[in-house]
User: Which sequence fits this backbone?
């Protein structure tokens, strides 16, 4: 039934993350910038997830004055606690007059509890954004396990065409229900005109040496061991070059041992977690992403928006933002040698590095703004509620690669 804008619709963002990263920033951006004269956002965390949600995400939600609803812990009995959690979520949805459920997950089989709770609460609009391509942890039985949940989900949202293709090919999802909307960033926060030399001095780096950097959690997915290996190869080839990783995580000790073993401790630096990491990005001459698997990365867009030359691993989703040899260099996955060759190529050709950075800056400004993302989401909400005509199903005409 066609609805109108007269009543502000309430959107519950269901969040199941366990670490603070790109997904959390994506969700916070949606929450903060959605048009509240049309849609009123709140965050809902299930009882099962309440003990796993990263404190920083909770703090950011509360600091922004956003409504946070947390279901009671349902207990440890597997079957009973699942049912209790579904029931508790349904009561929250009913009590708070939720119109739209928008699940944010990094798992292709995530969101089962809130989907069931939404149906129990009589909510007709259920959307699911799946931030990570299913190939990263695909299990064949899941395509059958998720079928009933997919049937009652209005749209599955992906952040890249490559992710969309995997949802369709690996999981057998209906192309007309899988909608691609690229991530977007607040472009005004990322200033491409800066002084790397001065930035290096302020952070204690030698301003005379190149600085090659990465930003990301120190976890297996990010492939930092290949970045460390690349650093050793570059230093062996041309001598003194500084490298830095900004971030923390469970592989910190292992990575520091690798640096020590390779004898590059003088030049390889660990900055730890930095709430404001942009001064480090400003100081970098080349940015690197060595991820083993990755969605459509916000950090990738931020590097582009800062006007930085980049060397990234050749993920399908990265290819949709970075045109190889035009906006940056895309190199073989899980290869320190390939990363090193990319870094050496840019260090040896500053004109090329500057050209790639300028092209990347123009591309991110044209295609990947937060304003465009917010409009995408509100148009999709409008369409699904029947407020106005919008045709995300037109994406079904996009060729699906096999």
Assistant:
């Amino acid at each position: 039934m066609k609805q109108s804008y007269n009543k502000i619709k309430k959107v519950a963002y269901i969040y199941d993350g366990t670490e603070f990263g790109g997904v959390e920033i994506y969700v916070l951006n949606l929450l903060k910038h959605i048009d509240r004269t049309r849609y009123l956002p709140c965050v809902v965390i299930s009882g099962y997830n309440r003990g796993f949600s990263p404190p920083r995400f909770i703090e950011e939600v509360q600091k922004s004055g956003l409504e946070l609803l947390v279901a009671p812990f349902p207990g440890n009995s597997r079957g009973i606690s699942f049912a209790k959690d579904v029931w508790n979520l349904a009561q929250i949805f009913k009590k708070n007059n939720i119109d739209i459920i928008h699940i944010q997950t990094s798992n292709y089989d995530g969101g089962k509890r809130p989907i069931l709770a939404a149906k129990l609460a009589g909510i007709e609009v259920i959307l699911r954004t799946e931030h990570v391509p299913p190939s990263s942890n695909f299990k064949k039985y899941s395509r059958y396990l998720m079928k009933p949940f997919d049937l009652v989900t209005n749209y599955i949202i992906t952040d890249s065409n490559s992710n969309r293709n995997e949802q369709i090919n690996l999981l057998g999802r209906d192309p007309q229900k899988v909608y691609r909307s690229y991530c977007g960033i607040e472009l005004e926060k990322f200033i491409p005109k800066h002084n790397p030399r001065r930035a290096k001095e302020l952070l204690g780096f030698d301003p005379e040496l190149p600085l090659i950097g990465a930003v990301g959690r120190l976890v297996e997915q990010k492939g930092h061991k290949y970045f460390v290996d690349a650093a050793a190869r570059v230093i062996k080839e041309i001598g003194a070059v500084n490298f830095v990783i900004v971030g923390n995580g469970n592989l910190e000790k292992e990575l520091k041992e690798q640096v020590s073993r390779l004898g590059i401790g003088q030049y390889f630096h660990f900055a730890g977690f930095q709430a404001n990491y942009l001064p480090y990005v400003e100081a970098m001459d080349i940015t690197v992403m060595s991820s083993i698997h990755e969605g459509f990365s916000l950090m990738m867009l931020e590097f582009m928006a800062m006007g930085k030359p980049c060397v990234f691993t050749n993920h399908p989703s990265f290819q949709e933002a970075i045109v190889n040899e035009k906006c940056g260099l895309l190199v073989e996955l899980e290869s320190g040698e390939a990363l090193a060759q990319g870094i050496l190529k840019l260090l040896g050709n500053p004109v090329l590095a500057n050209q790639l950075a300028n092209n990347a800056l123009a591309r991110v400004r044209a295609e990947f703004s937060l304003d465009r993302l917010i409009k995408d989401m509100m148009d999709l909400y409008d369409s699904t509620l029947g407020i106005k005509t919008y045709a995300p199903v037109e994406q079904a005409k996009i060729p699906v690669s096999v």
The chain has two domains: 9-184+369-397, 187-367. Residues 9-184+369-397 form a domain with the Rossmann fold fold (CATH 3.40.50.2000).
